[in-house]
Every structure is written in C-alpha cells, then in structure tokens.
Amino acid sequence: SQKREWNDRRRYLVYARTEARFYEEFSHILKHRNVPIPTLATSKKNLDSVLGDSELSGPVNEEPEAKILQHAGCFLFLSCAGRKLIQESPLSEKMAEIALNTVARLHAAAWEDKELLEKAASRLQRFGGSFALSMRNPKEIQKIPGNWKRFSDVFSPLNPDLFERKGIDQLGTRLVAIAPWVAKQLSVLPDQRHATLIHGDFKAMNVFLPAEHSNERDGLLIDFASTGVGYGMSDVAMHLSHSVSPEVLANGGEERLIASYINALKKVYAERGAGMAMCEYPPSVASLHYKLGVVDYARFVLGRFWGNASPEVFLSKADKPNVTLVNRNAKAALAFVEKTHRCLLELEQLSQIDERVVKD
After folding, report:
1. Fewest CB atoms within 10 A around its CB: which of 24, 110, 177, 353?
2. In terms of C-beta density within 10 A (0-12 exposed, 13-18 middle, 19 or more buried), how is residue 30 classed?
3. Arithmetic mean of pLDDT over the chain
4. Which residues are within 8 A (CB) of 11 and not within 5 positions of it... i.e. 6 or more apart?
C-alpha cells in the first residue's frame, strides 16, 4: 500500500526475502534432518534490486522509485502436505505438546551448529523473532508506560488483588527499563552455547497439527519470515502465551509443557547421532531463557497491542485465532500480567548484578 511509510513496506519486503531464502537455501538441509516443513516446488522473486543485502534491523535505505517498487515481490509455490492436518487456537494441552514437539525438531536440527547458524545470521534474520527489539518501531516502547496505565485502569476491577501487588503499578516502566538488557541477552551469536535456529513467530496459526484423535506426534511448520538465530525458548514463551489458554497452563500445565519440549529437544537431538547430555541444557539455563522470552514478548504486547485494550475490544476479537490470546481474552491477559511480573522480579535482580559487575 502506498499509504504505508517506506519503513513499514520495507519490513514486509524483508520478511518475504527471509522466507524465500529459508526455502531456497535452508529447507533442504533441515528436511534432511527430519524437520517437518513444506517442500518448495518453485519460487520467483525480485527483491534484491530493492533491498540489496540490508538487514531488517539495519539502516533504512532510501525509498526506491515507484516503477522499481511495482515489480518487487516474491512468489513461493509449496507442495501439499500429503496428510490431513488442522489449525486451531487456543490449543488443548495435547495439541500444544505436539506443537512444541514439532518446533523442537527445528531447534534440535540446528542446535549449536555454528556453520549453519553463521549462514543463517547472514542470510536470514541475524537475531530471530518477529518482535525482536532491534527491528521494532521505537515508538512501540515509548507507548508502554501510557498503555499500561490505561490497561490497569480498565482491567483492575476484574482482579483487584493482582493490581494491588507491589510493583504491578510500575510494570510498564519496569519493562521499558529492562528491555535493552533483555534484548542483549537474546541477541544470540552463532557460536554461543544453546544457540539454534528459531522460528520467530511461533503461534498456533503457523503450525499445522494432526487431528486430536490422531496418533501422530508431529505437525508441519510454516511461515519462516522471522526465522533467525536465537534461543529456542523464545519460541516456546511466545507460543504458550499466544496460543494456549490459561486453564491449560494452570495447575502445573505450563511446567509440563515446558518439560515436554525439553525432553523432545533432547530426544530429537540424540537421533542425529551425537546425543544431548542433561548438563548441556540444564534446567536453570532453560528456565532463564524462558523468562527472558516471556518478558521480551510482554514488551512487544504492551507496546504494540494494549493501547486500546478493553473487555469489549477483546470480545470483538475473541474468535480470531491469529490474534494472540492475551489480546482477545481477559483471563489470559491477566494471567500473562501475573507471569510477566514474576519473571521480571527475577530478571531485574540478574540485570542489577550484571550492572554491578560491569561497574566493578
């Protein structure tokens, strides 16, 4: 659309380029490692003349002439899945477990593979994720304190005890303060421990799943426009908040799903012939990565979506499965607030320790 600013239109073109490069340059390697993704039949793109090799998070080049932009784009033709699959959101615990098992195959396939990850950092998204701070509009983070104040005013009557907790009233300010530190922790380099290829936009509508009654244990991943280097737990954190109901996550459900993902990750990695010892992804590290992912996603949600949040607005989007559950379900939103607060408390302590170490 000509009405969009060039920066926004450029973002969509870079997404298209990332998706095309994923299928043309990486999919055959990953399929050989048993990652369930569609097969590319053929593709046609004209993006380099507009974008060159510029990164999504890099400086924005000048807007090309209209006659050049008119011919910029990409077509990808993918083969049919060849089996009966469904999409739905929110997911039951069983279906969420299958979704996490599926993305674990992607993570295990690239786990600490320095050569593959160096190529991905160069050719895909350097730091994976549709909501990575480095490629978001700076206006989003500026809106967080005001958005949170408004959200609190509107939703506090639904759970007064939550909003009376110490620190909750300053949740927006706290997210802004810690955002750069969190982004730094999640700016994973190809040679770092636990580095892998992440999906980057892992919601229920980006994974086809077998029917509920099926005995199949894997789905089919789609939409790799934000794929890049990162920690796999970023995908897990987004998925559980975006696509799994608070009823499923309650009473140990969240912990069971995270444990299921880690078990699947290690099992699939072992199938590659090397084996992943328990100490190679200790629970304390996995837990930290998950909390970083939760807080990073919360920063995105508060800045991008909650400017006009209300029970009435949520109700109008209640049946839209592509919309994150925390932006269309009040109970999910309040549970997300509580989880974000808990994760923040721990990360704030760690970030303060980091600051003291740097000063010393």
Report:
1. 353
2. buried
3. 91
4. 56, 135
AA identity, residue 283: P
String of DSSP letters for 106-164: HHHHHTT-HHHHHHHHHHSEEE--TT-GGGS-HHHHHHHHHHHHHHHHHHGGG-HHHHT
Phi, psi dihedrals of residue 127, rounded to the nearest 5°: -120, 110
Torsion sign (Cα): 346, 182, 132, 48 = negative
pLDDT value of residue 199: 98
For residue 250, the 8-state DSSP code is T
Q: How many CB atoms lie within 10 A of CB 55?
A: 17
Q: Please name the residues in contact with 286: beta carbons below 8 A apart, sequence gap of 6 or more.
A: 233, 258, 262
Q: Are 174 and 298 in contact (CB under 8 A)?
A: no
Per-residue confidence (pLDDT) for residue 272, from 0 to 100: 78
Q: Determine the residue type at 54.
A: S
**Please, is 52 exposed, middle or buried when counting C-beta atoms within 10 Å of its C-beta (0-12, 13-18, 19+)?**
exposed
CA–CA dist 307, 154 (Å, integer): 11
Decide if 244 contacts 91 (C-beta within 8 A).
yes
Q: Which two tokens stand for residue 233?
A: 């737990």
What confidence score (pLDDT) does residue 71 get? 82
Q: Please give the pLDDT value at position 1.
A: 44
Cα–Cα distance for residue pair 276/265, rounded to 1 Å: 9
Closest alpha carbon to 291 in 342, 251, 355, 351: 342
The band of 2, judged by pLDDT with boundaries at 50, 70 and 90, is very low
Quote the pLDDT of residue 278: 46
pLDDT in tens, 113-142: 999 999 999 999 999 999 999 888 888 999
How far apart CA 20 and CA 72 sit, in angstroms, is 13
Q: What whole-number distance in Å separates Cα of residue 239 and Cα of residue 324?
A: 9
